[in-house]
Design a protein that fits this description.
The protein is α+β, with helices and mostly antiparallel strands. The protein is 50% helix and 8% strand.
Amino acid sequence: MNATAASADEALELFSYWRSSAAYRVRIGLNLKQLAYRITPVHLVRDGGQQHSEAYAALNPQELVPTLRHDGQVLHQSMAILEYLDEVFPLPALLPDDAPGRARVRALAQLVACDIHPLNNLRVMQFFSDTWSVPQPERDDWTRHWMRVGFEAMERLLVESVDTGRFCHGDSPTLADCCLVPQLYNARRFNLDLDAYPTLVRIDAACLALPAFDAARPENQIDAG
């Protein structure tokens, strides 16, 4: 984004891969806060996976993206990074003011980030393929199954709550929306039928209509392709 909320001595550098849903979450959060940041691409497939290079492993021992470098600090894990940004750059807030609201938003976000995404991320798929020789159709079925399980619960939680608005919580994007949109992008990649989740689809469309979400789309990244 072109905003200047972060001063020159507080440069933000995001180590990202265009199709990583975890990095996608952080790009959304940075954009919503209108923070200027530089992307350093880390290709998760090329060269055997650039995240496994000695230089990147020194920066992030988990050999995962994203990593955020800010004013001398090196930060890992997308959810921790997003909450860090919310504390250091509090407006616009990614979490509600009230404790119950914050708990609800965190629960929705973690439903995606902790329960859906880890079961279908790249290193799981590579293990299935390279170690167990699981055929592609079975790997795809695994991915779609766990997305369905999570989406069914999330759809119900959103439909049954009066706190659901234009977005997952009220009428402003939150941490939950930062997580939902990348996961729906993944669902479409795996040809998951989303007709059973009209609330998720509606919220996704409302999010993607915003410039902050649109700029974060995988296809709009400098390393896309």
